[in-house]
Structure formats: structure tokens, C-alpha cells
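User: Predict the structure for this protein chain, please.
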Amino acid sequence: MLEDYRIVARRQRKWMYLFFCIIIIMTIFLPYEYFLNGLLLGAVISFYNLWLLQRRTDLLGESAEKYGKRKGIGTISRLASAALGTLLAIRFDVSIVGFVIGLMIAYPIIIIDFLLFNRK
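Assistant: Here is the predicted structure, written as C-alpha cells:
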């Protein structure tokens, strides 16, 4: 069961890598650098939050499997990284709207991955 989760987590990270490539290509070829730089910054923070959530969920599963104890899943860490990303977006003058869209991109990826690959 835990190995199935690791496969799903790996697949979601691959979707995020694909999204990064698309944003970078768009940044190179389209004249909307202000928005796309914000989108890229938000996507980087979103990827970190996704990775952190997956890692903490994996540790939670292992801990529950071995000891029956529960640990947190790092909500404060993810909120702090979003706050840090917001400060970076303001400091380096990138689009806040693009940043917020990029920050939330992990959640549609999780939902789309679930809808595509869980038709059992």
C-alpha cells in the first residue's frame, strides 16, 4: 500500500516537472515575463510544498505502520514557504497574480492525477 503511494507521489512530481518546462518555454518565447516569472516562482514554491507534503505523508504512514503514533504533516512549514515566496515576489517585483496561480498549481495536478489514474 505504501509503495502505491510512492508511485503516485513520483508521478505527481513528474507532472510538476512538465509544468516547469512549459513555463520556462513560455517565458523564453512570450513577451509576458512579468506574469510568467511570478508563475514560475509560485510553481517552485508549490513544488516544494508538494514534495514536503508527500514526504511528511510518507513518514506519517511509516510511523503509523511501525509504532501507531501520529506526527504532523508540516502545515506550518508549507505556510511559511508560501509567506517567504510572497516576500520574494514583492521584493523582486513579479506578478502577485501569477505567483498565486503558480502556488496553487499542485492542487489541480493532484486532482487530475487522481481522476486519470484511479478508475478502479
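The mean pLDDT is 88.
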